[in-house]
Amino acid sequence: MKARRQMKVQEIITKEIIHTQEDLAERLRLAGYDVTQATVSRDIKELGLIKVPSADDEYRYAVPTEAHPINLQDRLKRLLRETVVSINDTESLIVIRTIPGNAHALAAVMDNSNWEEVIGTVAGDDTILLVIKPKEAVQTVLERISTLL
Prior knowledge:
By secondary structure, the chain is α+β, with helices and mostly antiparallel strands. The protein is 46% helix and 22% strand. The chain contains six helices and six strands. The strands form two sheets. A four-stranded antiparallel β-sheet has the order 3-4-6-5. Strands 1-2 form a two-stranded antiparallel sheet. Strand 3 and strand 4 (93-98) form a beta hairpin. Helix 4 (72-83) packs antiparallel against helix 5. It is globular.
């Protein structure tokens, strides 16, 4: 079921302009798949889907092409510069606010950056929670992000 659903995800985003996880979930439901936002989020991450600019000055989901590999560091820098609205921290957490619809893409790139201090991310539509360990490393991560901005 998961493999068929993920194939359907790729088919949908290839044939249609899908801006948000909610849009994708709705299209999957219309195609007969009973999905939650969490399921769609996992599928997006597992498939390595990316957000690319669309003709209407918004972003849409796309399948990354192997013919045009993207440098992860450059992609992280670009996403940080284009999508981050604010950054805040407390104890061992960093909260990054993005423009709507971009938190998941940025969190996925951050997860793949393998920053040893970041033990995990949680992303919503416009907010990312970074869990940092040890808590003394929060400043290091903030400085690294600041450098990329």
